[in-house]
Design the sequence.
């Protein structure tokens, strides 16, 4: 293998590893070590995960693959105690047809009265929802009451 071929191969491997490992940003600093671990445990399972504490921590991990119109009605993946009690979220959905963004609503029934904020698949997780607000400026921390899977075009505001 010539020098040029080896250099190209090395560049390709570097690019591959950069894609495989989630980007480290200010939000995913050492304080997010647990979110990183959770992501690698559940990567690609097709679910949205919710956590009662920051840094993707909960005694009981909750997750689901479908939509849930009302987290306080006792139906669906999330029920009663999950309503208005979440401080970090994760998107380990799949890329089927572009429906890989989770739209989190402050109100039940997908109401946009108090707004919403979306989590892209590529963003992976939000380790502390207190840094995020809805489209109307309402805090997302301990405020989520419903969610649905949408395409990126269905969102005007994204979490980070």
Sequence:
């Amino acid at each position: 293998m010539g020098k040029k071929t080896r250099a190209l191969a090395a560049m390709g491997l570097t690019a591959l590893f950069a894609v495989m490992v989630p980007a480290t940003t200010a939000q995913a600093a050492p304080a997010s070590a647990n979110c990183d671990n959770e992501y690698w445990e559940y990567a690609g399972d097709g679910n949205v995960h919710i956590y009662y504490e920051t840094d993707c921590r909960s005694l009981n991990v909750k997750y689901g693959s479908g939509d849930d119109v009302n987290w306080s009605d006792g139906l669906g993946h999330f029920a009663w105690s999950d309503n208005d009690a979440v401080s970090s979220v994760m998107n380990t959905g799949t890329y089927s047809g572009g429906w890989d963004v989770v739209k989190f609503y402050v109100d039940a029934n997908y109401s946009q009265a108090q707004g919403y904020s979306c989590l892209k698949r590529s963003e992976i997780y939000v380790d502390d929802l207190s840094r995020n607000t809805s489209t109307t400026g309402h805090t997302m921390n301990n405020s989520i009451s419903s969610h649905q899977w949408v395409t990126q075009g269905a969102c005007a505001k994204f979490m980070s």
Q: What stands out?
A: The chain has two helices and seven strands. The CA atoms of residues 68 and 76 lie 6 Å apart.
